Amino acid sequence: MGKGDTQMAVNSPRDPQDVGYTWPTILAVAVHALVVIFSLISLPTQTTEPDSSSIVQATFVSTETFTDQAQQATDQQAALHSAAEPEPDPEPSQQETDQQQAAEEAAQREAEAQAAEQALALEEAQAQAEAQRRAEEAQQLAEEQAAEAQAREQAAQQAREEEAQRQQEAEEQRAREEEAQRQREAEEQRAREEEAQRQQEAEEQRAREEEAQRQREAEEQRAREEEAQRQREAEEQRAREEEAQRQREAEEQQAREEEAQRQREAEERRAAEAAEAAMQRQLAGEAEAAANAQQAQQAANSFINIVRRAVEQAWLIPPGASDSMSATIQVRLGPSGELLATSVVSSSGDSAFDRSAMQAVEHAAPFGELRDLPSDQQRNLRQINLRFTPGDVR
User: Fold this and answer.
1) If pLDDT is split at 50, 70 and 90, which confidence band does 15 have?
2) What total number of domains does the chain contain?
3) 260: in domain
């Protein structure tokens, strides 16, 4: 029943029989109000959050529920006070007045008790609302702390993941750097090995070149030695040939000298024969022969002295000639004293000395004094021998 209904009941004319239903009606209204209050207090509107997979699960309870319940309890208490106030009735009797007064007092006391109970229930509801609010605040604080903890945990987890990521990236970077270092070291090692290989090949090439150079030098040295050997052999051969040539020349010279000696001996024999014949002729005509012989000898000696002096003046003695050298040159003259031929009758052993003697005869000719001699003397003096020594010519 509402407040408007109560007000209409108060304003309508009241039947005396209706007085006994007033308090039961108030009590019924109060009971209904208490039922409503307790139902509101015990059944608050709650909004349950769906389960989540997070660590902290929170349930949200609207704070407006308890505020509305308190407001409704206040409104019901005011309605009860309004219903408890009796409307002025017409003047009742004293007994009715006393009964009514006693009933009113009883109702007043009952209403006050109910009001106290309602106030107590309201205070309890407010306390429960405050506790609920504090619980909600604590729960909200716990949820916030849990959310903060979760956020911190998530931040820590994210930091750990980031740290792990950084570590992983650092490991990968270190692995890449180590791999790059290994590659660099491998490249350096390969470069060192290639450089060592190049140096070894260069050393081997240089060794081969040096060996080839040594071989070339050995070949050249051997060639030089062989050439020197050939030259020595050639020199020895030439020396042997020269010695053989000298021996041949000496043999030829000896043969010439022997031939000259034979010629001299023949000349001497002829001269001896001529002398013998002259002596015979002289013996045949002693007087005339003696005179003619003396005259012929003088003329022959004179002509021979002329030839000898001319030859001595024209003779250029070689610088290396010694006093022990001697050469005999045969000279053949023409009728007018011109030189026909010269030949070595006895050699000095030095071809230059012999050649200088023949050249002296050639330079001194002709000998025109031969024309002044008698014809028989000319025939005897057209072939003479001249003996050349460094001291004089005989």
Assistant:
1) low
2) 2
3) no
